[in-house]
Predict the structure of MBL fold metallo-hydrolase.
Amino acid sequence: MLRYLTVPVTAFAQNCSIVWCDATLEAAIVDPGGDLDRLLAEVQRLGVTLKAIWLTHAHIDHAGATAELAQRLSLPIVGPHEGDRFWIDALPQQGAMFGFPPSQAFTPTRWLHDGDTVQIGHCTLAVRHCPGHTPGHVVFHSAEAQRAFVGDVLFVGSIGRTDFPGGNHAELLASIRERLWPMGDETVFIPGHGPEGSFGQERRFNPYVGERG
């Protein structure tokens, strides 16, 4: 079964998640935006072995420490979709703009596309391409665990910003309604910021995309 621990990192309190297979203790880290020493201390405490970095998108608070972590531990970088290539290339400038530690651009080991899967130990997660917040944003969904790691697509009571370069409000709404809601009302989502929620609650009451918003 898939297990996970969410660790807020950076001044933006970005939810970085360590996900692992409880049978093999092999792990991936989703969106290592920064604070690597803290994240690696949690990995050690959990007794898991990092095998990959998974990225939902390439904004600095989600991807800022990716290159350093990949180099330190010789990890493959999986994701996001290549629509975010320009954001990856701009990571050094993003870091300077928002006061982050120096960040390096990188080339993912594997770009992701809608319908792909990623695997850690015995756990397989489906990949959905959910553009809108960024053009290359992806979401990781475990049907077995009823969990989805959604980055900055959806939040409890809110949705991702679309005023950054490449953002598109109509695309974001379509991504949520057409690709997240079919994952099921009982699915719990882990957003890029803030508390977890359920798709059912947001589908009914979110003021931006909810039926009764």
Q: What stands out?
A: The mean pLDDT is 97. The CA atoms of residues 131 and 137 lie 5 Å apart. DSSP finds seven helices and 13 strands in the chain. The domain at 2-205 is CATH 3.60.15.10 (Metallo-beta-lactamase; Chain A).
